[in-house]
Design goal:
heterodimer, A: 167 residues, mainly alpha, 8 helices, globular, B: 220 residues, 10 helices, 72% helix, elongated
Chain lengths: 167, 220
Amino acid sequence: MEQSTQQQFFGEIIEQHKGILLRVARIYCPHHDDRQDLIQEIMIQIWQSLHKYNNQFKMSTFLYRIALNVAITFFRKNTRRRNRHHTLDDQVLLISADTGPGKEQQLNYLEKFINELKEIDKALMLLYLEDKSHAEIAEIMGISVSNVGTRIGRIKERIKARFSQLK
Amino acid sequence: MNEAELKNLWLATSQKMEAQFVINIKNTEDFARMKTYHLLGSMKPIKIFTILAGLLWVGGGIGILTPVYLFAFEKANKYFLFSVTIQIVLSAIALFVYVYQLVLIYQTEITEPILKTQERLARLRISTLWVTRILFLQLPVWTTFWWYGNPFTDWTLLQLLVSFSVTMLFAAVAVWLFFNIKFENRNKKWFRLIFDGREWSPLLKSMEILEEVEAYKTAK
C-alpha cells in the first residue's frame, strides 16, 4: 500500500471507528490524563499494523484486538500511577453514594465495578456492553463461543452482586 | 435500573462522548513519518546485547575449558575446574532463556486474539524468573573456586567446618529457591521480599494476567 493511500485509509478507519478507541480508553484508564496517552499509543499501533489487516475479519474485530491488547499492556506499565488514582476515585464515589441513586450515578457505579474486574474480564465486559455478538467476542478474545457465554454470565453475576450491596 | 437499561445508558453515553471526540487526522502525517515501532521494541536491544555478551562469556569459557579438559586435566585444580564448568553451563542455560525471550518478542503480534497475545506477553515477562533461579543456583559454586588439595587431610578442622558449612548453606538456599521461585508462590512474604520494587511489579502483574488466561483456557 502506498503511503498516501495508507494515510487516507488510516484517516477513514480512525474517523469511522474512533468510538472503539475511546471506549477502550474509558474502560482501562479511569483517569483522563492517561486516556490521551493510551489513545495515542493505540493509534500508533493501528498505523503500524494496517498492512496486516485480513479482510476475512471485520475491521472492528481487527481494531478491538489491537486496542485491547495495547490497553492491557499499557495498563501493566502504568499500574503504579493507576493505583494512586484509584484511591481518589473510590473516595469520590463513596461520598456520592449518600446522595441517592440517579442514572449517571448508576453509570458511575457500573464503571467503578468494571474497574474492579481483572484485565481480561474487563475486555469481555466492554464487548458485552457494546452489544457484540458472542461469535465476534469469541473472535476478538480467542476463546470459544460457549466460553464467552459462561464468562459473561459470571461477570454479570459479580456486578449484580456489587449493585445489590449498594441497596 | 435493570440490565438492559444500564446497557442502553452505557451505549448512549458512549455515543455522546464519541460525538464530542475529535481526532485531528492531520496528525496521521506524523505517524507516516515514524519509523517502524514495535510495542515491545524497547525490550529488543537489551536482550540482543545480553545474548551477545552471554555468547562471549560462554564461548570464551568453553574456549578456555576445552584445552584444560583435553590436555591438562590431571594437573588442573579440580575444584576450580568444576566450579567454572558449572558456572559456564548455568550461564549457557540463562543464555538460552534470553534467546527464548527474543523469539517471543518477535512472535508477539498485537493484531492476534487477546488471550494469545497476552499469554505470550505474560510468559515473556515470567521467563525472567528462570534467569533469577539460575542466578541463585550459581551461589554454592562461588564458594568452591578456591578449594585445594584434599580438604580432609590438607585443611585445618576449623577451615573444613567453616567452608563446608558455608557451601552447604549456599547449596541448600540455592536449591530451595530454584524450586520455590515460581508463579504459585507469588503471594508469599519471602517472594515479595525478593521481588519487591518497581522493576518487578510488571512481572507480578504478568503473573496475575497469566493466571487469568489459564482460567479462561480451562473454563468449559
